[in-house]
Amino acid sequence: MSSLAVIREHEALPMPQGRVAGVDEAGRGPLAGPVVAAAVILDDNNPLEGLRDSKRLTAARRDRLFDEIREKALAWSVASASVAEIDTINILQATLVAMQRAVDGLLPKAEFVFIDGNRCPALACPVQAVIKGDDRVAAISAASIIAKVTRDREMQLLDEQYPGYGLAQHKGYPSKAHLAALESLGITDIHRRSYAPVRKMLERSVDSGVGGN
Questions:
Q1: What string of DSSP letters covers 17-71?
Q2: Helices (H) and strands (E) in the chain, counts
Q3: Which of 16, 20, 117 shows the shortest CA–CA distance to 74?
Q4: Nearest-CA neighbor of 16 among 100, 118, 137?
């Protein structure tokens, strides 16, 4: 089902009836790891305080809200798209796939969906993109928290499997420390080869006759 026009920052939001889900993602920018999406349907009879864009919260506050959202929400779901999918279909399409999977995982099902940003996945119910929705729609804020905490914890686990890259600290983003580790340790199978910094390292390796990990 097609989405309505994108709602800009200062435009009024619609007031849909029924079960309304918010959807957001984490991990579009990193050089490593999956992109993670979450969908949340809040329970009007079990309100949550302090919801906002996950990036504007401390890690400790995100962790507390992560547990509270999972306990109090009417439904929540988290899904991802792999590094292989990102490299095959590009990060935008992989993000939309992860969002679609997250919405499909909701039980009960959503009857209307708000998406953070300006692009919507194809869904079976009406869907609306909202610019800066993670600060405007409580359900999107909740989804932002679920997605970010889930991905951060996954990157901490990957840090144990791939020591030396600092994944637990930078979560795969292209920090100076991460780029330096790539230069010294090489590229792993969790790095996104379609991303320019990784791709350029691979091209230099081919030119010099040295392969990645």
A1: -S-EEEEEEE-SS-SBS-EEEEEEE--TTS--SS---GGGS-HHHHHHHHHHHHH
A2: 7, 5
A3: 20
A4: 137
Residue 73 carries which DSSP code? Answer: -
- CA angle centred on 40, ends 88 and 145, rounded to 5°: 75
213 domain-assigned: no
pLDDT in tens, 45-71: 998 988 877 788 889 999 999 999 999
- According to DSSP, the residues that pair with 75 across neighbouring strands are 41
50 phi/psi in degrees, rounded to 5: 85, 15
Residue positions counted in the chain: 213
Q: What is the pTM of this model?
A: 0.93
Check which CATH number belongs to the domain holding 5 and give it: 3.30.420.10
Integer Cα distance of 100 and 8 in angstroms: 22
Residue 165: name the closest of 127, 213, 205 by CA: 213
Mind listing the pLDDT tens digit for each residue in 117-151?
999 999 999 999 999 999 999 999 999 999 999 99
Nearest to 190 by CA among 34, 54, 39: 34
Query: Total domain count for the chain?
Result: 1
> What's the CA gap between 38 and 78, in Å, rounded?
4
Q: Structure tokens of 196?
A: 């320019």
Residues 65, 68, 74: CA angle, nearest 5 degrees: 120
Residue 136, domain extent: 1-9+16-208
| 3-class secondary-structure state, position 10 | coil
Helices 176-185 and 196-208: angle between axes, nearest 10 degrees = 20
